[in-house]
């Protein structure tokens, strides 16, 4: 975590200049024909990944796992899931990636393990087992009939599971197969540090840390706010009492001794609190943070509670994070990952799929921070829209369905919501070509459904079309690489009150960038903000041919984006 001070006083660092491609391994590419994505498939696509202009790959969990939450339930932190390959293959992949100039970021999932992890199997054997206190085992209330407190899981349902043999309950703030690890126990912390060292010594370049802000639970595990229908009790473990102590320990004992990057995942995070973790300097605990606030512009906290898309809400969040972190900390920029439906289907338009995809890409990648791109985002994959409940593979979808039924929603209504809200939407196999199974697998059946639009939306078709979203991503990343103003410049928003346009500028040492992004198919009148003369700038990127790029007033086309450099 060395910070290099440049001549201009910018805190330059490789992680600030990096662009990350996220792979959700199960659906990326199947190399051995069993219908499931794997390391062999990833190796075969490394040149493609490199060709995008990214400089790092983040792998969603590759570890041995019963896959109840698709790898976020780890059964062995030091081994690769056999359906993905072997540790030897991983080492080969790591070496190959490094030889191509790609860094490798692993997913660190230590708020919980799988119930199939040896630690948990031991912990449930007896109260005096040395692993018992690796987890939160508690006696029930009311003579054992009721769970120890009223907490509920984030994947709707109970937060505790009863074990008959021990006559005790264990805590799981996610699926029942994901028991929470007890970081209050120093032995658990030593285990975590050993895991970090294991992967760092192997040569990986950092970690994306899964719900890392949840790892410290309030003493006594007090009851949560009773009205919460899911994640009840969260106020007792989000940014819990010992969180900074734990993260400092992981950093000081391990991470700071390696040249690595850390990105913490933090639901419900706000900039002010984030700064306690990511402010640069000797006490910095994490390099960046994945917050969720900008994913709430069309919903209330979670995608299942829908609201009409509100651009002003989106802009306010982005601008707030840009401003609050400026000069102090660094943003992680993303608009898609494996936990959210596809962005074009949400903030863009499936009708203007390519146009709106380009606009959304520009809108976030031109901000100050490190961009993350999720597999398939670069070709404009859209929501899957599965019609039947049985077709959904995600435990969170199944549990949310049950909760909504309990709350009185009709089946059809819930299925309607799931089509736009379920995480499954982002987890369909990557569409490589218009052949059988979209070129994802040679097996008869892929593990999951393929989006019907694969004949049109696929990598091969996008490669051939010079106006494709794929080529646009390449241009955009090249522009970012060649123009430090996009990486290190300051940020200023214009026309904040506009409900249709997102316009901002960036500035660095006299170099300026202005980006204009329309979030509507309707024509909107745009006028260059004060201080800008577009005829003096260079139109560096756009999603339509522009006849007169120097005109200081124009009417926007559907989802138009233009980026000028001065
Ligand atoms: C966040 C991960 O991104 C998500 O996929 C997972 O289900 C939960 N954490 C639990 O690990």
Q: What proportion of the residues form beta strands (DSSP E)?
A: 15-25%
What small ligands are held by the chains? 1-deoxynojirimycin
Name the CATH architecture of the largest domain.
Answer: Alpha-Beta Barrel
Distance between the termini: 34 Å
Return residue spans where pLDDT drops below 50 for at least 5 consecutive residues.
1-8
- Backbone structural class: alpha/beta
How many helical stretches?
15
Main beta sheet: strand number and arrangement?
A: 8 strands, parallel
Relative helix content: 25-40%
Overall pLDDT score: 97
CATH H-level superfamily title of the largest domain: Glycosidases
In the CATH hierarchy, what is the class of the largest domain?
Alpha Beta
* Rg over alpha carbons: 24 Å
Number of domains: 4
Number of strands: 24
Explain what this protein looks like in three dimensions.
By secondary structure, the chain is α/β, with parallel strands linked by helices. The protein folds into four domains: 19-106 and 342-386 and 422-482, Alpha-Beta Barrel (TIM Barrel), CATH 3.20.20.80; 118-171, Oligo-1,6-glucosidase, Domain 2 (Oligo-1,6-glucosidase, domain 2); 202-329, no CATH class; 489-565, Golgi alpha-mannosidase II (Immunoglobulin-like), CATH 2.60.40.1180. It has 15 helices and 24 strands. An eight-stranded parallel β-sheet has the order 13-12-11-7-4-3-17-16. Strands 18-19-20-24-22 form a five-stranded antiparallel β-sheet. Strands 8-10-9 form a three-stranded antiparallel β-sheet, with no helix packed on it. Strand 16 (332-333), helix 10 (353-365) and strand 17 (370-374) form a beta-alpha-beta unit. Helix 11 (395-406) runs antiparallel to helix 12 (411-421). It is globular, with a radius of gyration of 24 Å. The structure holds 1-deoxynojirimycin. 1-deoxynojirimycin is lined by residues 69, 72, 109, 174, 210-211, 265, 338-339.
């Amino acid at each position: 975590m060395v910070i290099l001070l440049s001549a201009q006083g910018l805190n330059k660092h490789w992680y600030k200049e990096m662009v990350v491609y996220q792979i959700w391994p199960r659906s990326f590419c199947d190399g051995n024909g069993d219908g499931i994505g794997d390391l062999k498939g990833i190796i075969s696509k490394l040149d493609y990944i490199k060709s995008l202009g990214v400089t790092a790959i983040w792998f969603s969990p590759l570890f041995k796992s019963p896959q109840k939450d698709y790898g976020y339930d780890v059964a062995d932190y030091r081994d690769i899931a056999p359906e993905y390959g072997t540790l030897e293959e991983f080492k080969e992949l790591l070496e190959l990636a490094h030889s191509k100039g790609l860094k490798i970021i692993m997913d660190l999932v230590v708020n919980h393990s799988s119930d199939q992890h040896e630690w948990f199997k031991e912990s449930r054997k007896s109260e005096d087992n040395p692993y018992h206190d690796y987890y939160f085992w508690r006696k029930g209330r009311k003579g054992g009939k009721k769970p120890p407190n009223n907490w509920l899981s984030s994947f709707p349902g109970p937060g505790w599971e009863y074990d008959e043999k021990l006559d005790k309950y264990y805590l799981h703030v996610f699926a029942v197969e994901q028991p929470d690890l007890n970081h209050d126990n120093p032995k658990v912390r030593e285990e975590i540090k050993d895991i970090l060292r294991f992967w760092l010594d192997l040569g990986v370049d950092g970690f994306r840390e899964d719900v890392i802000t949840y790892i410290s639970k309030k003493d006594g595990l007090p009851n949560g706010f009773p009205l919460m229908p899911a994640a009840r009790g969260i106020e007792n473990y989000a940014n819990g009492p010992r969180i900074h102590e734990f993260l400092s320990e992981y950093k000081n004992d391990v991470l700071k001794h390696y040249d690595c990057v850390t990105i913490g995942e933090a639901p419900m995070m706000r900039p002010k609190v984030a700064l306690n973790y990511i402010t640069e300097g000797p006490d910095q605990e994490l390099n960046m943070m994945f917050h969720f606030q900008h994913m709430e512009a069309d919903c209330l906290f979670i995608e299942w509670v829908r609201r009409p898309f509100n651009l002003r809400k989106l802009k306010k969040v982005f601008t707030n994070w840009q401003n609050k972190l400026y000069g102090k900390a660094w943003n992680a920029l993303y608009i898609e990952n494996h936990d959210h439906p596809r962005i074009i289907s949400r903030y863009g338009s499936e009708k203007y799929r390519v146009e709106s995809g380009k606009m959304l890409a520009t809108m976030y990648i031109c901000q100050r921070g490190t961009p993350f791109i999720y597999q398939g985002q670069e070709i404009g994959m859209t929501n899957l829209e599965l019609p039947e409940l049985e077709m959904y593979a995600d435990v969170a979808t199944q549990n949310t369905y049950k909760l909504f039924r309990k709350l009185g929603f009709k089946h059809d209504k819930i299925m309607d919501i799931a089509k736009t809200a379920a995480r499954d939407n982002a987890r369909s196999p990557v569409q490589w070509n218009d052949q059988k199974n979209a070129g994802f697998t040679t097996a008869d059946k892929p593990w999951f459904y393929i989006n019907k639009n694969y004949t049109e939306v696929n990598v091969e078709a996008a490669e051939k079309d010079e106006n494709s979203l794929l080529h646009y991503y390449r241009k955009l990343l090249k522009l970012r690489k060649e123009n430090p103003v996009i990486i290190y410049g300051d940020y200023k928003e214009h026309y904040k009150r506009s409900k249709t346009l997102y316009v901002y500028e960036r500035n660095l040492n006299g170099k300026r960038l202005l980006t204009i992004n329309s979030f509507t198919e309707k024509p909107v009148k745009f006028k260059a903000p004060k201080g800008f003369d577009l005829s003096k700038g260079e139109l560096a990127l756009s999603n339509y041919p522009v006849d007169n790029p120097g005109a200081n007033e124009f009417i926007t086309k559907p989802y138009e984006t233009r980026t000028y450099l001065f």
